[in-house]
Amino acid sequence: MAISIIKPGLLDTIQDLGRSGYGNWGVNPGGMMDTYAGSVANMLVGNCATEAVLEIHFPGPQILFEQNALIAITGADFSPMLNDEPVGRWQPVVVRKNTVLQFPRQEWGARCYLSIHGGFDIAKWLGGYATSLKIGAGGFKGRSLQKGDELTTKENTIYFAGWLKEEKNMRGLPWRISAENVYRLPNEIFFLKGHEWEKLTGPSRYSFEENNFIIHPSSDRMGYRLRGAALELIEKTELVSSAVCFGTLQLLPGSELVLLMADHQTTGGYPRIGHVVSAHLPKLAQLRPSDCIQFHMVDQETAEGLVFSRQQELNVVRRSCLDHLKDMVCPK
Amino acid sequence: MQQWFAENPFEGLKDVIAAYSSLSLFYDPVRVKMHYPTSARVFDFVRSRLEEAWQKTSGVFPGVHTETLRIPVCYDDSFGQDLSFIAETNHLTKEEIIRLHTSDEYYVYMIGFLPGFAYMAEVNDKLVIPRKPIPVQVAPGSVGIAGSQTGIYPMSCPGGWQIVGRTPVSLFNPAAAVPAVLKPGDRVRFYEISREEFEMSSEERL
Asked: What percent of chain B has pLDDT over 90?
């Protein structure tokens, strides 16, 4: 086995980029809350973007490496420590067998991602590795990791054990990805207007962009509950259910606002007043209860433009990670 | 239209979800743009496909394969926690509620909310009842009524529908090749079983 859980964290689950195509069975895509951090974690260790990673909330787990491993930790900063030495984040790190990884402090962000070279060896369910907690299927036995759980990796394609220096427990490889661009202006979230946006009163539409909303403690992977300015509809409407997605803003009775996240239900019957743009979902995923959000409406073109430039960035990251790893394996 | 997309997908199309009166397309704009280069917005491309689907399927019902299924329900008091509420509110006896619930054939409009949760309609006018203002925890297999809809909770969760009974049948089986038993377009008829029959039936496969 590659790793085992000495002490479980609050919510450690196997996730990937989500399983699409099953909405008509009521099965939503699920997957990583922060797809940018999760994707980069895979790229840093030379994995395909579709490999499973471990999504970790705070308090995090204590993980024992049963073998030498090439790992990367991205996303939130939970001060990762390997046997009392700080571990570099957003960079590939070779760790020695029998060392213990833990996360003593939450410095920034809400979810961090641990990838391992080769990818976690998890059985697929409906074509993917993501854990569906509600159904109890997918990921590692359909649940979060518990004490004693053991995870294996698939075959290594890089021999990295030789990169560890004697008497050192780890070695951070000399390149790091700067994710500053992705998470800057963390509280400013762009959205596209939703189907029922026009059903809001004029003052409410104004209020929505002018005021901040605070993330309520009862928020989780299914959705963030937001508290802020009271929003009103021009007239009370009963809607029939229709599809919703990660980032959809629903207005519930009593003026409660719910921002659907990765584990959202496939359909909903509440007014959809907006949708957070895809490019801002990663930084949204790193916000925590008590953080505030200021929404800003953009148009379709802007939203698409952001997705395309994000993809360009990811392509550059992937290319550069692969090149660096190749150089390490066969130095010129 | 959903059937049309199944036969005529486009690169980057991730899912097509049919609901009561809407069809939603989920797509990856990067993949769409890569395969269908255009200076217009990807959104416009996808919209044009939707319009094409709409035109090509207007007035034509391709005869999607659907089934009529009979689902057993035990209306025992311990399973139908809200039977007395419905009886009182709608001035019916428990027997009348069961008779009305089992005498109609219901149409499955959509699956959503939970894996395998089928929105079925319409129940007899006498059974129409509002949902609960505050959801309560319901057991898997709980059969409920809300407004003029009826449905079955495939798993334990907070639910706002008025519960009339429970079925021993599993509506969602993650291990199966096709995990959801019901699909939009299917028809369902309920029939009553006794408490003993409920206890005796192991996982029934329809």
From this structure: 70
Query: Would you call A161 exposed, middle or buried from its count of C-beta atoms within 10 A (0-12, 13-18, 19+)?
Result: middle
Q: What is the pLDDT of residue B202?
A: 58
CA distance B66 to A165: 64
What was the pLDDT predicted at B134?
Answer: 82
Residues belonging to chain B with any Cβ–Cβ distance to chain A shorter than 8 Å: 2, 14-22, 24, 26, 29-30, 33, 41-43, 110-117, 119, 155, 157, 172, 174-175, 178-180, 183-184
- The DSSP code for A270 is S
Within a domain: residue A312?
no
Any B CB within 8 A of A309 CB: no
Do A10 and A78 sit in the same domain of this protein? yes
State the smallest CA–CA distance between residue B179 and chain A in angstroms: 8
| CB-based contact, A302 to chain B, within 8 Å | no
Q: Across the interface, which of B21, B29, B111 has its CB nearest the CB of A240?
A: B21
The nearest CA of chain A is from the CA of B24 a distance in Å of: 6
| Residue numbers in A near B35 (CB within 8 A) | none
- Say yes or no to pLDDT of B63 above 70: no
Instruction: Pick from B45, B114, B148 the residue to mutate for testing the A interface (most A CBs within 10 Å).
Output: B114
Q: Per residue in A18-47, pLDDT tens?
A: 999 999 899 999 999 999 999 999 999 999
User: A300: helix, coil or strand?
Assistant: helix
In CATH, what number does B68-200 get? 2.40.100.10
Domain ranges of chain B: 2-57, 68-200
H-type helices in chain B, by residue range?
2-7, 29-35, 42-57, 83-90, 94-103, 195-200
Q: Which range marks the domain in which residue A206 is found?
A: 188-298
A311 falls within a domain: no
What tens digit of pLDDT does each residue of A125-171 get? 999 999 999 889 999 999 999 999 999 999 888 888 788 888 899 99
Whether B131 and B123 have beta carbons less than 8 Å apart is answered as: no
**pLDDT higher than 60, residue B81:** yes
Mean pLDDT over the full length of chain A: 94
* A15, A291 contact by CB (below 8 A): no
CATH number at residue A294: 2.40.100.10
Global pTM value:
0.91
Structure confidence at residue B205 (pLDDT) = 43
